[in-house]
Write a structure and sequence with these properties.
258 residues; alpha/beta; Cobalt-precorrin-4 Transmethylase, domain 1; Methyltransferase, Cobalt-precorrin-4 Transmethylase, Domain 2; five-stranded parallel sheet; 10 strands
């Protein structure tokens, strides 16, 4: 069995209980060494074989999985954050299916959740934004034409951008071209939940300069949107005493909720 495990955003305490249990019983671990906190490897038992996939190709990763399967050894494939976001796991799972090797996915805490926690931020505020766009700038890896930053920016909803810190001048230009005003609030969160975490608040027009000033060149998330502004938002109906739900009747309302 191959277990794809989300390692969480950085803080080793943020791995799931199941993910920790899988590491504690692991026979072989292939981890994303460029991003996963190596402190998690201390959970592995003595004799566990450990491979750093930052120095491996897809073919080499799959070869280790195949060899372990033939030897009757389980594999923990440790990805940063949650493996379903920019984890390149589909191509691995396709190869495993071709080889008739069973696998499962153990989800993890994404860095976009870690960034919100670092900022004390709610991405979905009533009356401000009820949608979150998770995307990236086009770099060496292209994005579909319909998913260009300008297209998403037209909605002016909350946007979280992965893998874009080295392209901030181009990003700011695309955001403004798409519809965000230049003074739209933005944040750069470097290594969310790590000991050296850094948070920088700015405006869309200031993203590139703010990153240069703080020496941030990679391993950061960019958050854009009015949820960062601190402006007044609507109270949630869910906890409004006048709002009837399945579990309680609103005060001052009739039994039918009117």
């Amino acid at each position: 069995m191959v277990h794809f495990v989300g390692a969480g955003p950085g803080d080793p305490d943020l791995i799931t209980v199941k993910g920790r249990r899988l590491l504690e019983g692991a026979q072989t671990v292939i981890y994303a060494g460029s991003l996963v906190n190596p402190a998690l490897l201390s959970l592995c038992p003595e004799g566990c074989r450990i491979y750093d996939s930052a120095r491996m190709t897809l073919e080499e990763v799959v070869r280790v999985m195949e060899e372990c399967h033939e030897a009757g050894r389980d594999v923990v494939r440790l990805h940063t954050g949650d493996p379903s976001l920019y984890g390149a796991i589909r191509e691995q799972m396709d190869r495993l299916e071709e080889l008739s090797i069973p696998y499962e996915v153990c989800p993890g805490v994404s860095s976009f959740s870690g960034a919100a926690a670092a900022l004390g931020l709610e991405y979905t505020l009533p009356g401000i934004s009820q949608s979150v766009v998770i995307t990236r700038m086009e770099g060496r890896t292209p994005v579909p034409e319909r998913e260009k930053i300008q297209s998403f920016a037209a909605h002016q909803s909350t946007m979280v951008l992965f893998l874009s810190t080295g392209l901030l001048e181009e990003l700011a230009k695309a955001l403004v071209e798409g519809g965000y005003p230049p003074d739209t609030p933005a944040a750069i969160v470097y290594k969310a939940t790590w000991p050296d975490e850094k948070k920088v608040l700015c405006q869309v027009s200031e993203l590139a300069e703010a990153a240069r000033r703080e020496g941030i060149r990679k391993t950061a998330l960019i958050i854009v949107g009015r949820v960062l502004s601190g402006e007044a938002y609507q109270r949630s109906c869910l906890y409004d005493p006048a709002f009837t739900t399945e579990f309680r009747k609103g005060k001052g309302q009739k039994e039918d909720g009117r």
